[in-house]
Amino acid sequence: GAMRLAERRVIVKRLAAMHNIGAMDVLCTDKTGTLTEATIRMVRHLDFRGAESERVFRLAYLNSHFESGIKSPLDEAIIAFRSLDVTGWRKIDEVPFDFERRRVSVLVTDGTERLLVVKGAPEDVLRQSTHYEGEGGVEMPLDPAARADLDALFQKLGEDGFRVLAIASKAMGPDHASAALGDESELAFAGYAVFLDPPKASAMAAIRDLTGAGVAVRLLTGDNERVTRHVCAELGLPVIGLITGDDLRAMSEEALRARLPKVNVFCRVTPAQKERVLL
């Protein structure tokens, strides 16, 4: 068996691994970089109307440029989209990303204004916003009608297969010297940064071969439901049942075990929730 695999350029380090793979009847996989190309490209930067907005791009760029630590593929896509001169800006502080808040905030200044710039999952950023940037950058109340319009734009982008980050900001006082979780409130919603991450050409055939061999494929991803359904359709993976991270958070272990046989897609799940499903 190891010799036959070697002919296919596969190195077997543990012989028992071949038996384990042969006995496999369920395969759990991530989406980004496993089923998709992981060559994420930023393709649009949209305001509240869905029109291209330089303001949205500038805020997204400031956030990604000054964010500390390892850049995510989405940060790299924003920075690679187009270079901006930010030499007049400096970073004051940051609230790092975490999988519970699903956003990152940087406090920056150019000497005349001091801004908290927030980038993250649309659902969470919208929840923290009370205003949106309207015509001419004028802040308007984020009433139920405006909130519904922004949510509809987000849902439409997801249905078309685009990954989306929300961009918002908040003007801070000149003496505001640090950024804290409590600052991520009463935000002014600016718009959406939109990304494309197409499926791998080989992914559909791999899923088809696994299914034909009697292996059930389970997809676990941090992306939202609509973009996940779109990718599943492109890959030929029927969605039998779907559970979100919010669903998981409310489930007991007994309820989860009862649902597992009827579910093959888990979306908006954190790394800890993925581990819970696997174990």
UniProtKB/TrEMBL annotation:
<dbReference type="InterPro" id="IPR023299">
    <property type="entry name" value="ATPase_P-typ_cyto_dom_N"/>
</dbReference>
<keyword id="KW-0472">Membrane</keyword>
<dbReference type="InterPro" id="IPR018303">
    <property type="entry name" value="ATPase_P-typ_P_site"/>
</dbReference>
<keyword id="KW-0812">Transmembrane</keyword>
<dbReference type="GO" id="GO:0000166">
    <property type="term" value="F:nucleotide binding"/>
</dbReference>
<dbReference type="Pfam" id="PF13246">
    <property type="entry name" value="Cation_ATPase"/>
</dbReference>
<keyword id="KW-1133">Transmembrane helix</keyword>
<dbReference type="InterPro" id="IPR036412">
    <property type="entry name" value="HAD-like_sf"/>
</dbReference>
<protein>
    <submittedName>
        <fullName>Magnesium-translocating P-type ATPase</fullName>
    </submittedName>
</protein>
<dbReference type="InterPro" id="IPR023214">
    <property type="entry name" value="HAD_sf"/>
</dbReference>
<dbReference type="GO" id="GO:0016020">
    <property type="term" value="C:membrane"/>
</dbReference>
<dbReference type="GO" id="GO:0015662">
    <property type="term" value="F:P-type ion transporter activity"/>
</dbReference>
